[in-house]
Amino acid sequence: SFNNIVSFPSRIKDLSLLKEFDCSCNKITSLPPEIGQLKRLTKLRCNGNLLVTLPEEVSECKLLVEIIASENKLKELPSSIGGLPTLKRLLLQNNDLASLPPELGNVLTMEELNVAGNNGLDTMVPREMAGETRLVLWTCTLHRDYRDRIKQLKRSNIQLEAQTEALAQNVMKLKDEILHLQEEKQQILDSMPKTYMAMKQKAASSHLCSIC
């Protein structure tokens, strides 16, 4: 902390036994993706920096219990953060977040989630509820379910369009077959000798006379 650090080298991955990583109150603009190789990491404190997001690879730190990323410039969070099975504490106060990944609703171990001071979140999370963990998670869950429902409806719509197209093609095919049969019938009629037609008409007339 308080070292005016701007970035970390990729060789941070060599700290394979590291359990707590505290880089708070510096001038860091991004964390290296290699942080995902710190498999024993349980606490990540990166508050008071200039971060605009967290690396997707943070989700590979499956033992993470705490992430403190308040007082940054965070504009978004990776959806993969919802894959942290032991995360209990996530502090994101005073950033520039406009939305939260719906996947946060999957983190059943969460005990403290604070997003106060992110004015862009007002449409998703009412300001007075921004520090209420359960309400924020519930909101994320609603957004996740809504997103999944939209995806399902889109898939259903694609299937319906495909079925409609197939039906239209079958109708056109049936019309073509009917037209073809009509043409064949006409060809047969046209090929009949005129004398045969005359005999047929005479036979029909005789039949009518016998009835009379």
UniProtKB/TrEMBL annotation:
A Pfam match: LRR_4
Record's keyword annotation contains Repeat: yes
Coiled coil: 143-191
Presence of the UniProt keyword Repeat in the record: yes
Stored SMART domains: LRR_TYP
Keyword list, A-Z: Coiled coil, Leucine-rich repeat, Repeat
GO cellular component: cytoplasm
PANTHER family named among the record's database cross-references: LEUCINE-RICH REPEAT-CONTAINING PROTEIN, PTHR48051
Protein name, as recorded: Uncharacterized protein
Source organism per UniProt: Heterosigma akashiwo
